[in-house]
Amino acid sequence: MATQFLIRTSYKAVRLAAANHLPRTPVRVMCTAKGIPTNEEQATGLELRALLAQKKGKDPYSIFRPKEYAGTSEDPHIVPSIGDKRLVGCLCEEDNTAIVWFWLHEGNPKRCPSCGSHYKLIHQELPH
Q: Which residues pair with 105 in a beta bridge?
């Protein structure tokens, strides 16, 4: 009796599958018809602003490596700030563990009291 039931149900299942009447599970794809979206296509908000600014060559959130300056009075290290003064720390030697801290004010470049490197404060607006 059980074998007849199995034979009947398997026969019906084969007939339905052949006639395409079985429900199919939907296939999930990871992309659209155009392909996988790029970063610019799927970015929103501040991430989109940063990507667009990087395309224009700007560095709104200090993502790029800072430009190297000689640190002389003719070519001082540039320190960006949104205010008129900023606390600057100078690591005078590579292997030095002590940081020399001093205040830097807008308009007048200052020299590190320990190593003699020159620093200049430049006013910078916030990107957002």
A: 85
Phi, psi of 56 (to 5 degrees): -80, -5
Which DSSP string do the residues of 9-77 spell out, in sequence order? HHHHHHHHHHTT-SPPPPPP-SSBTTBSPPHHHH--HHHHHHHHHHHTT--TTS-SPPPP---SSSSPE
Q: Is the pTM of this model over 0.85?
A: no
- Asked if residues 85 and 105 have their Cβ atoms less than 8 Å apart, the reply is yes
List the pLDDT tens digit at each of the 128 positions of the chain. Answer: 677 777 777 777 767 666 665 555 665 556 666 778 888 889 998 888 888 888 888 777 777 777 788 889 899 999 888 889 999 999 988 888 899 999 999 988 999 999 999 999 998 876 65
Radius of gyration of the chain (CA): 33
The dihedral over CA atoms of 81, 85, 89, 90, expressed in degrees to the nearest 10, equals 90
Q: State which amino acid sits at residue 126.
A: L
CA distance 110 to 128: 29
